[in-house]
Amino acid sequence: MDLRGVVRILSLLLVPLLLASARGLSKASQRTFKIDYSHNRFLKDGRPFRYISGSIHYFRVPRFYWKDRLLKMKMAGLNAIQSYVPWNFHEPQPGQYQFSGEHDVEYFIKLAHELGLLVILRPGPYICAEWDMGGLPAWLLLKESIILRSSDPDYLAAVDKWLGVLLPKMKPLLYQNGGPIITVQVENEYGSYFSCDYDHLRFLQKLFHYHLGNDVLLFTTDGAHEMFLKCGALQGLYATVDFGPGANITAAFEIQRKSEPRGPLVNSEFYTGWLDHWGQPHSTAKTEVVASALHEILSRGANVNLYMFIGGTNFAYWNGANMPYQAQPTSYDYDAPLSEAGDLTEKYFALRDVIRKYFGFVLYRTTLPQDCSDPTPLSSPLSGVHDRAYVAVDGVPQGVLERSDVITLNITGKAGATLDLLVENMGRVNYGRYINDFKGLISNLTLGSNILTDWMIFPLDTDNAVRKHLGGWDGYNNGRHDKPLDHSSSNYKLPAFYMGNFSIPSGIPDLPQDTFIQFPGWTKGQVWINGFNLGRYWPARGPQMTLFVPRHILVTSAPNTIMVLELEHAPCGDNGPELCAVEFVDRPVINATLTSGHSPPHLPDQQSGMDYV
Question: N or C: which terminus of the chain has fewer CB atoms within 10 Å of its end residue's CB?
Answer without folding.
Answer: N
